[in-house]
Every structure is written in structure tokens, then in C-alpha cells.
Amino acid sequence: MEPNQNTAPQAPPSPHADNGSPDPSPELELDPNVESLDLSLPLTPCWAVSDSHSPPPSPTAPSRTLTSPLEALSLNSTLESISSLHGSLNASLSLPPSPCEGPPSLENLPPELLLHILWYLEPKFIVCILGQVNKYFHALVSEPITWKIRMGKRWPRGQRYPPMEVSDDFNWQQACMEREETDRLWSDPQDNIHHFTLDRHFATVDAVHLMQNGTMCVSGSRDRTAKIWDLSKLTVGEPVPNGAVVKSLEQHRGWVWCLSSLDNTLCTGSWDTAIKLWDLSADCQLITSIKERSAILCTELQNDILVAGSYDKRISIYDVRANYQPMGSLCHHQKPVLCVAADDDYIISCSEDKTVKVWDRRACQIYKSIQLEKFCMSMWYGRGMLLLGDRRGKVHMYSTTHSSFEEIETVEAHKNKVTGVYYTLGGLYTCSTDKTIKVHEPCSQPTTICTLAETKGEVADICVQAGVVASAHSDFSVGIWRPAV
Fold first, then answer.
1. 432-469: b or e for each residue (b if 16 or more CB lie within 10 Å)?
2. C-alpha torsion sign, points 241, 246, 252, 257
3. Separation CA 297–CA 460 (nearest Å)
4. pTM of the model
5. Which band of pLDDT confidence, cut at 50, 70 and 90, is reported for residue 100?
6. Mapping DSSP to helix (H, G, I), strand (E, B) and coil, where does residue 296 land?
7. How many of the other CB atoms lie within 10 Å of CB of 257?
8. CA-to-CA distance for 279 and 266, rounded, in angstroms?
């Protein structure tokens, strides 16, 4: 068959087609019928919405006022070489160099298009590598709107994150990094999380606590001991070595029911009515022992005070700076005090009398009392929120911004008692007597990312630190979930 004589001649080969050096001054012929070039990236992640980008304005186009914080960033720095980014750009953006702006580079792109490119990169790479290239990228990475836009694209369902009001200095960069990392890990725990079972107790484990950036775990049991575990000695696929138990504290004469810490000081509370404090930096030596009148059900250790809730309805306060001398007690609950929390302004307690009381530390009186339908069994306080887990499987969220302590949402988390609740910028962690541990999204109306059901016993407590999750179980074991390195 004869070739069609009307066929247009093929375009000349690209100056980069052969292996030789490119022409230092290539002349690129553009089709006069093409009015603009499509700059949209060829790949679209499953979570990205359709975007359209206009080409960069020509040097002769009239200037316009820059109103966006991103558009106002300086474009005068010179981009250093980043091979991974250049590879993607060369494949997607083949624009002729502008005679006024020099060779095309990432710096010359509109911020909207640059943000679209950043959505394909890991947050850690953006912050630790790209943000260190020059002042322009550092400013772009440091701008809060960059991370707000990224999270809006990643989670477009309209849920409020964080679920409470945040201050102007809220770290959106850190929040986005933590949320994406938590979502990545727990969306596929089989590949991303290593699970270990610590089984040196011979009775129900009721309390668990993580210390030293998630490398040390303390467990309290009804066998009357508190065991300290070195998690760095755990190896995937191998039995838990005997050396993983650094110390077994056996001075209590009753169930070890609650744990708390501050730096290297560990606090244990027991049904033998004793509170004991240990110095972990001095081979777990006993600092002091405090004798109360009733079983100790919860403790909270702060820089200046130690707060303890007991079975006899009282909240006892001790002065840390005066060798734990008693400062007084709060006696407004009608039943045993199950949980306590504290900061510089308030002491918060919840009781079997179905009330949560917020105490003003300076006025030494009740600031607010919250009445519940069912008493709460677990509590978490911090980051402008108060979380309460009740015996019906619900988690109640309260905003503490501006000292309001107003309920903002109730989450149906479990089918039975919520025995532990913990919040991070990456996720909401809960455990229950329904024998499950759940990781939820850290936002309003959260959906469950992952449900763990690795043990046969009920889950009595949970603690989260540096991505490590520890849980206490009624089958005498301690569960550890650690991100794969």
C-alpha cells in the first residue's frame, strides 16, 4: 500500500533523543494551532479530586496582585538538584525555557501546581528533605495552609480535624505527618505492625503504662507485682526473652491496679491501700511509700502534685516538692473514684456516682460538675479535649478550650465497657471488655481504621506512646503493637 501523500511530515526528533550531548541552544518549534499546554499531572491518586491548572503566565502578561499566602512566597531562590523530583517533572512538564526566567524549574511553577506535586510525596520527605533545599521551599513547607490543603484532599469527607477548636499556633505540619503515618500503619497492620505477647504474669493484668518514648512498658497485675519490660529486646518471630523483664516490683500486698509516671519516676497504686514511688534511673529503688485508708484506684503524677483517687470516695493530693507530704483531700463524690487527671489549672475526677467533677486548683472548689447516664470507666485529658469512656461502649468528647468543658460529640466505639481511651494527633485508640482494641480517625464523626482482636481475654487498659500501643488483658498477658522499622 502506498503511503498517504497528504500525511503531514513527522516532527523532528527531540534534541534529547540520542545519547549525545544536547544542543546548548535548541530551537523548539511549537504548533501555532495549539493555544495552551496541559500541565495537569498524568497520575491521579484515588483520594484526589479533579484539578485543572493553567500554564504559568508569560513574561509579557500583565501582573496581578498576590493575595494567597502561598502566592506571596519569594520566588528568587535557586533550586538545588533533587533527582527524584526532576524525574517526575521532566516526564510531565516539557515546557520551552522562558527567555526571561531561564530554564524551567520547580521554583517557577505556581504554588497551586507545586502543591499538587507535593501530594504525591511522603510528608517526612517534604519536611526533612525538600524543606531544607532553599528558603522558598522551607517557607512553603512551614506555611500552615499547605498542610490544611493536603489534609483536605486526603480526607475530603468534611469531618472536623482536630475535633476541638485549636489555637493559632497549632502545629498543622506535625498533625498532618502524624495523621498520615498512623493511617498508613493501621490501614494494613499485618505488614506495618509487629505484635508481641508478654506473658510473665500469672493473674489478670489490670494496668499498663509506656515510658521512655515507647521503649519501656510497665504492667500491673492481680499477682501483686508490677513488671518493667524493655521493649527493645523484643525480636519479631522469636520468643520473648527472659531478659525482657528488667525488674519485677513485688513490694505490694494487693492487686496493682493503676500506674502513672513523670520522667523516670514511676507511681504504682494498689488495693493494699499503698501508693509507692520508684526511681527507674536508680535501679528501680523505692523513693517513698504512702499509706492511704482505702484501695487506690487511680493516680496522676504532675511536676508539683500527686493526685490519687480511692475506693472510699476521696481524692488525695500530695506535694511532690515536699517529699510527697499530704496537701489535703477532695470529698464530693458519693461512690468510688475511678479516674483522675490534672494539669496546672484543674483536677478532673470521675466516679461510680455517674458524675465527672472539674476542680479549680487555685480556688480549691468545684469548677464544673458533669452528670452522665452511665458512669465512665476510662478517661483521657489533654490537647484541648476531655474523653470519657463509659460502660455502654460510648466515648464522650468534651472541649476544654476556654475552660468550657462542653460536650461536642458522642462516639459509638464498642459493644461493651470502654476500659481505655487515648488520643493522639494521628488516631483515637480505645479498648473494651468486648475483647477488642480499635484505632479510629482523630476527627469528628470518626470511622474505625482498624480493629485488633489478638487475645482471648478482655482488654482492661491501653497506653500509646511514640507509635507503640500497649494493652492489658484478663488472660494474664500484655499486648505490644510496634511499628515495623
1. bbbbbbbbbbbbbebeebbebebbebbbbbbbbbebbb
2. negative
3. 13
4. 0.79
5. low
6. strand
7. 24
8. 7
